[in-house]
Write a structure and sequence with these properties.
Number of helices of chain A: 9
Largest sheet of chain A: 6 strands, mixed
Structural class of chain B: alpha/beta
Strand order of the largest sheet of chain A: 6-7-8-3-9-10
Strand content of chain A: 15-25%
CATH superfamily of the largest domain in chain A: P-loop containing nucleotide triphosphate hydrolases
Order of helices and strands of chain A: EEEHEEHEHHHEHEHEEHH
Oligomer: heterodimer
Largest sheet of chain B: 8 strands, mixed
CATH superfamily of the largest domain in chain B: P-loop containing nucleotide triphosphate hydrolases
Number of strands of chain A: 10
Largest interface: A-B, 37 and 41 residues
Helix content of chain A: 25-40%
Chain lengths: 270, 322
């Protein structure tokens, strides 16, 4: 099994304070991601779990090169991502897409759903005709469980779960290899969240996707991760196969996290 | 056990462009002192509107029918639906208090935490002297298990962590010694380790202070760990109610079963989502609101709303299967 994504000693620090109230001269920096290394194999779901402020979102953004690391190495499909510039980086980016947490904030309210889903095509494959793009968008929407009529409608006409499906269709229309999903079900109701998790699993099989799955929720991660890395204060404190991390955690922090998860009583069924 | 709060067919109607809707529809519930009732529902189920009705905070134009009775010290009961705004001021905060999901938006960002808690105390006892007020402030903060209360009282909300902010909200809510505490998703915005601390705190407080706790959440696992009894709400109605262990291990209503099957757990299992979506309140069918998503649907389900029937003395559901 070859690694699709290799991350070595990645680090990102931010200036503390700053802004209008900052500027007291302290040069102390806040290290959001500290010396993080991991590998994601093609076709697997690699989950990073951690509590708020642990640096998991900054890590995800660095992988997509939306945030520049201080230093470290980032290889994607054998290419050194941090060396890519301009056109090369753009070409590489279509292989890596993101699904966001908040389905309300991540869709442009003034664009029709058809335009939203087709927009990545317009950027990366401008040679295609509008009709071709619309056809691809329709296909993709159908694939995520939305009707063709959705094309002409605006985001506000959809529920949270449907909007998340629109976000997924937009992320997948370029047929990326890697999808970074940052808390994709956290804002959704339980019944709808389960629909989206199952959809992500189906799409993974169908399109041979590799997921980097960012979440605060161990139960959610337990449903679909093949590997789990536990992040705390910028560092990965433990990583390994999902079953091992969940059932035989080696770090006391992982054990604390697991112990704090409220559990359902065992069901007897209807 | 006598009820501290008793709702009988409580209904809240709101005017919309498409006519009157009932976000709270024929709800009957009781909570005793020292008891936690979990109220479970997804977005749009009406659980928040129900809590606003109990706080006298319904939007203008809302119509309330049915009964909501709160027991008083002298053994009589107060009818909440009949209170004037003047009378609500003596009940809201004083007898029934509420904490919310996001403590940061409920706290005043430019006021020290201690002063905000004092304000909550003074609102109901304006004549307290300075020393007595300070003593009450410290008691409230100790109830909420805030470490270093003297220091914390001098800090502003942004200087506190999410967990401490929620503790400050709890201190503020409990300072006037209410009998009923409504907690609306109080731990949803918190990390799981902090959530556990807050759940443990609320559980200890309701025993120590003999509080009746109405705990509103979408999370069945949280309810399993905090509630004695649970009521499941769907499209404005209570569709199932009973002891928490019974409801979660042997649910009667297909919606409750569906929620359980859709809840991720630490053990990997086949999740089964509930198909379809919650119906709009303006487009409710004449029968059971869950019928279109239900795999046990019968013809009668589509004709009229099923009655609430009991499978045993404490556990019942609004379903033809019971």
């Amino acid at each position: 099994m070859s690694a699709l994504l290799q991350v070595r000693n990645l680090r990102k620090s931010f200036e503390r304070g700053g802004g209008v109230f900052g500027g007291n001269g302290e040069a102390e920096r806040f290290v959001a991601v500290n010396d993080v290394s991991f590998e994601v194999a093609a076709g697997e779901t690699f989950a990073v779990v951690g509590e708020s402020g642990c640096g998991k979102t900054t890590l995800a953004r660095m992988v997509l090169r939306l945030v520049e690391p201080d230093h470290g190495v980032l290889f994607f499909a054998g290419r050194d991502l941090l060396k890519l510039r301009g056109e090369e980086l753009r070409a590489q980016r279509r292989q890596m897409q993101m699904i966001f947490q908040d389905p309300f904030a991540s869709l442009n309210p003034r664009m029709r759903v058809g335009e939203i889903v087709a927009e990545p095509l317009a950027i990366h494959e401008p040679q295609r005709s509008a009709a071709e793009r619309a056809a691809r968008a329709t296909d993709m929407l159908r694939r995520v469980g939305l009707e063709e009529a959705s094309l002409k409608r605006y985001p506000h006409e959809f529920s949270g779960g449907q909007r998340q499906r629109i976000g997924i269709a937009r992320a997948l229309i370029l047929r990326p290899k890697l999808v970074v999903a940052d808390e994709p079900v956290s804002a959704l109701d339980v019944s709808v969240g389960a629909q989206v998790l199952l959809l992500l699993q189906e799409l993974q099989r169908e399109f041979q996707l590799t997921y980097l799955f960012i979440s605060h929720s161990l139960p959610v991660v337990a449903q679909l991760a093949s590997h789990i890395a536990v992040m705390r204060a910028g560092k990965l404190v433990e990583q390994g196969p999902a079953s091992q991390v969940l059932q035989q955690p080696s770090e006391s922090y992982t054990r604390d996290l697991l112990a704090a998860v409220p559990e359902l009583p065992t069901q007897r069924g209807v | 056990m006598s009820a501290l709060l008793e709702l009988r067919s409580l209904t809240v109607e709101l005017p919309t462009a498409a006519g009157w809707v009932k976000p709270v529809n024929d709800v009957s519930l009781r909570i005793a002192a020292g008891e936690t009732l979990g109220l479970v529902g997804e977005s749009g189920s009406g659980k928040t509107m129900l809590s606003l009705a109990l706080m006298g905070l319904l939007p203008a134009g809302a119509r309330v029918t049915g009964e909501a009775r709160l027991a008083s010290q002298n053994g009589s009961a107060k009818s909440l639906a009949a209170l004037s705004e003047e009378e609500w001021r003596a009940v809201r905060g004083r007898e029934i208090a509420m904490i919310f999901q996001e403590p940061m938006t409920s706290l005043n960002p430019v006021m020290r935490v201690g002063a905000q808690i004092e304000e909550a105390i003074l609102a109901h006892e304006p004549k307290l002297g300075r020393e007595e007020l300070h003593r009450r402030l410290l008691t409230a903060m100790q109830h909420a298990a805030m470490p270093e209360p003297e220091t914390r009282a001098q800090q502003y909300p942004h200087q506190l962590s999410g967990g401490l902010r929620q503790r400050a909200m709890i201190a503020m809510a409990l300072a006037p010694a209410p009998k009923l505490l409504i907690a609306d998703e109080p731990t949803t915005a918190l990390d799981v380790t902090v959530q556990k601390q807050i759940l443990d705190l609320l559980d200890r407080l309701r025993h120590e202070l003999q509080l009746a706790l109405l705990f509103i959440t979408h999370d069945l696992a949280v309810v399993a760990n905090v509630a004695d009894r649970v009521a499941v709400m769907y499209a404005g109605r209570i569709v199932e109610e009973g002891p928490v262990q019974t409801v979660l291990t042997a649910p009667l209503h297909p919606y409750t079963q569906g929620l359980l099957n859709a809840s991720p757990t630490l053990e990997r299992r086949e999740l089964t989502p509930i198909l379809g979506t919650v119906p709009q309140l303006t487009e409710l069918p004449p029968g059971c609101a869950f019928a279109t998503r239900c795999s046990y649907r019968r013809t009668e389900c589509e004709q009229r709303v099923p009655e609430f029937r009991y499978a045993d003395v404490t556990h019942g559901a609004r379903c033809v299967l019971v």
